[in-house]
Amino acid sequence: MAREITNRDDIIAAIRRVDSISELIAQIGGQFQHELDLDVIVFGRNYAGKQVGPYAHLLVYDAGETIIEQGSWSANTFCLLIDGDLQVTISDHDGVHEVGVIEPGQTFGEMAVLSGSRRLATVRVANNSTATVLLLDRPALRLLRKLPKFGSALDKTYRNYGMSLALREIQKYAPTLFDEDLLKRFADATRYVVYEKNHVLFQQGDPINRFVFVKQGWIRRITGAEFNPFLAASMMGLDTSLNVDFLGSGNCLGFEGMERSAHWQYTATVMTRTEVIEVAMSRLRNDADLRQAITEALSGISLADDQPRPVEPVDRRTVAAAAKEIETGIVDGVNLLVMDMDLCVRCGNCSLACHKVHGQSRLIRRGIQIKRPLVPGRPALQNLLAPAVCLHCQDAECLTGCPTGAIARFSGGEIEINAGTCIGCGDCATQCPYDAISMVERGSQGTSAISIAGMARTAFSLAQPALPEPVSDLDDLLAVKCNLCNNTKLNPPGTKHQAYSCEENCPTGALLRVNPREYFNEITGSIGLIHKDQTRAIGRNIHRGDPIAKLLHVAGILFCLVAGIAAWWATRRLSADGALAFGWLTMRWLTGLVGLGGIAWVMVYPLRKQVYRRRAGPLRYWLLSHAYLGVMAGLVLLVHGGTSSGGLLTSLLALSFDLVIATGIFGAACYVAVPRLLTAIEGEPLLLEDLMARRAELRESLAALMSGITESKGREQLKDRMKRRFLSFGYLMRQYLRREELKTMLAQARASFTRESEALDQAGRPGSEGQVLLEAVETMATLRRVDALIYLHRLLKLWIAPHVIFTSLMLALMAVHILLAIYFSGK
User: Which of 22, 385, 484, 534 is 20 to 30 A removed from 291 (C-alpha atoms)?
Assistant: First the structure.
């Protein structure tokens, strides 16, 4: 067990002994040059009552103790060896291998901090010594990098480690081709380069002077883009001579120039921060053995680089989708949340589920929209939304600014915030490019338990859920974000499969957490086999295929048919009131009991909807059982009632039950059709609250514009004609039937009033009233589009109130009916 030395003088003495960080205690005129940084690293500081630091911890390890374990995710600290002997070992299928030693003054562990990856090796103290280690928290790295010696050493170390890791991966992929001598020659011939976004690697027609292996990042290949390679992707639809594709990590460029002089047949640009290994082509042409080994080892890693130039894609829409996935960075997320907007019924249950679990919702239904073909070459599109939820990025920007290290990568690789050390500064929230971190009042993240009675009451409530109170105390804030529902009852210790409350409580399966490199098949083939799976996700892709749902559909249909036909056949054969057993059991009683059992299970669904904090099975499967058992109960009870309507009570019961089924079928139809209609006309996913605010804004603008048209008899007629055209029922239906883009619709609207606009300019003030008229036309047309979206949103909820009312009425009448049946059967 490591022992910590807490004496600050000893820590400063240890810093003085390490050359790379000794500048931290450099003095000028008797004053520390980096006094503030030294203060927070060694002593810690108090800012407005909130503790920041210290970041340095001096530890003494005994012989044989492990400091870093290979494969662990504790990537929030790095170390400096002060004195002692440390051994570095790597475990693989052949056993444990010692790969080196760490000498006093060297850093170790910083690669995992910088790259967001697992620990690459095990570091332990040699058996014949003890070791003194300076353990530094992640925030110290940001301060120490300002020191010239440390910054230079860190950059050199990063490149050396990156190079050695890449070479090790290549050797592991092709162990028979690279012996130690050949691997050393490969290392001597290469350089490790980091390119920033938009860097042009080379232009089409340039001589091939180097071989490039992509260690990490993305490269765009373009043909026919001599004018501007950065506009090529957007010009593909207009110029068929342009072809674009993408190469991710594990790909190679330059095979065609290894043996003879050749020229690049495409332009290559860097799409994101990219790390590559480059080998001068002259070295490869002069070393036949190395050239042959590289060709045999790396030519089969990826199929994407087999073509010497990008080819015509099967569907150019896949290129646009892949470009957006890469440029936004979502394809490199470790654990990505996606919403299929053609399945999303805009119920908000995902955000509510997050709120119920954490005390405030960490899921904002706004974000990055992706349109991708379901099947390349076919017209159908999948409309995806990647909402503003934490992606648990591999290279997470939010980690770099935290002054206390409260936001860090934890044992499972996920990024989480330690509420105990968070000081509410908001640096992580401002750094996150996806707006996935929110600031809330400290203490507001607690949740209260709900009783069974409370669940029953809310199950049949028609009221909208109460919105949380706005943040009012700005002095004591806490950063919160998605933590994958860890440390909740959804994921108790020992659970084998991760459960997410938002995904579990989506009634249609629209919400899904995925491995983006597997989910987005348009980029799957662009990643080399070496780096195929560097993410930590996920369950079954129910958007591509949900066998459980298909099984439930088949079983539900068969069950309804079998139950209905069996009840009808048995009643016809045995009669409804003929005794079957026990003297009282008849087909009427039997069908009634079976129908009652089906209704009893159907009524469990509203109670399941109130379960957010515990595992209860995905809500989408409960909804399917709710629907099919309801239909089954309806068929059996139809046989139970027979051809006679009975008395008033029985007639009312049958009518209420029919209305329950009718409203349920109407709701199911809305759930299938309305989301697809919404995504077809809305452009990008919009919340109902946004639409209502936009409608109010458009109405105010329209009133101001209409008043700007001079009052006269002719112009009053013009206003009436505009209203009859754009605010009519027919123009509303046009939104649903044509589903044209907003730009196209507005252009046609302006064209229909161009002559009137020109007449107004000629009769009045040139360039004034005519322009006002066209603006009013655009505003009216846009207002009708917004109205159409609002009506669709309301249609998704319109059926719920009558369905609940008729269900409550049916249950009340059924209770009376059962009591009467029991009473009269005893007579």
Answer: 534
